[in-house]
Design a protein that fits this description.
Layout (H helix, E strand, L loop, with lengths): L1 H33 L19 H8 L7 H32 L5 H13 L3 H13 L6 H10 L6 H7 L4 H9 L4 H9 L4 H17 L2 H6 L10 H8 L5 H26 L15
Helix pairs in contact: 1-13, 2-13, 3-6, 3-7, 3-10, 3-12, 8-9, 10-13, 12-13
Length: 282
């Protein structure tokens, strides 16, 4: 029996290792291509014949009219940070209202927001673009921040589920002491919700940082300095440019993952904090 169990575990781990390797091959190829000396697509061999950091140096220290990566990175970072703050506040406030407060029309609003969330976002993109154009906010970073943040409150559902697990007695005790809803939210609920806040912050940053479709619709400028990272890297893949900039594109793709990795590393320590078990002492 032990031998059969051991064999099954070995087979299971071999399958998982093969799947992991299969999943990692594109990422490894992206990495080695970015570190190669060749500028175009090389399909003759997997690993480059010569290694170089020139592609990364070109991104940051030798930007040109085609690959103005510092400007793209700055624009995307501004949008990501602004949306991260605004969207996180919206999501947490809406989730608290639906979870901890009781008011007329609460269930109807929740059902309506869930139904609205079922429709693909692509359906509203053109309408959003024309509305923003009428307001003069198209082709601008502020317009993108408004678009990404305005509807973020509809993503409250997971956060609300977490708030539902916080003992009601804590909020009731705070109200007995004379605390307002804002005080209860800020001093009672938020400190106990650090894992959910981390989840909300990371998602709020990832959405605008990784988005391409909405940014491409909103930003129509011909000036590369006004583009985001996704638009700029996509432009490099044009047929006339890919032969000279594909390795630069791979290097930019790797750098795009750096802010997300840093954000996760910094905030993951809060996952183990804020646990509500045992918060109410008998």
């Amino acid at each position: 029996m032990k031998a059969k169990k051991t064999i099954k575990q070995i087979i299971r781990h071999l399958v998982l290792a093969a799947l992991a390797l299969f999943w990692l091959i594109p990422i490894i190829w992206l990495f080695v291509t970015a570190l190669g000396a060749e500028k175009g697509i090389n399909t003759n061999h997997f690993f480059p014949e010569k290694w170089s950091l020139d592609n990364f140096a070109q991104l940051f220290f030798r930007p040109d009219t085609v690959a103005n990566f510092p400007a793209w990175f700055k624009n995307s970072f501004i949008i990501g940070c602004a949306c991260c703050v605004i969207s996180s506040v919206f999501v947490l406030m809406v989730a608290y209202a639906f979870s901890c407060m009781r008011f007329k029309g609460r269930k109807a609003m929740m059902n309506f927001s869930i139904i609205i969330g079922m429709f693909p976002g692509v359906l509203s993109m053109l309408a959003i673009y024309f509305v923003m154009k009428l307001l003069g906010l198209n082709d601008s970073l502020i317009g993108l921040i408004v678009v990404y943040s305005a509807g973020s409150g509809l993503g409250y559902l997971i956060c609300k589920g977490f708030f539902d697990t916080i003992p009601v007695s804590l909020r009731e005790a705070a109200k007995i002491e004379g605390a307002s809803e804002l005080t209860t939210f800020v001093k009672i609920v938020i400190p106990l919700s650090k894992p959910m806040i981390v989840y909300t912050v990371i998602n709020s940053f990832m959405a605008p940082w990784m988005d391409f479709v909405m940014a491409r619709i909103m930003i129509n400028s011909k000036e590369p300095a006004n583009w985001t990272v996704s638009i700029g890297l996509y432009n490099i893949l044009q047929r006339t440019l890919i032969g000279d900039y594909f390795a630069v594109f791979c290097a930019g793709g790797l750098i795009v993952a750096v802010p997300l990795s840093i954000l996760f590393v910094i905030m993951q320590k809060f996952y183990v904090e804020g646990i509500t078990g045992g918060a109410v002492k008998g």
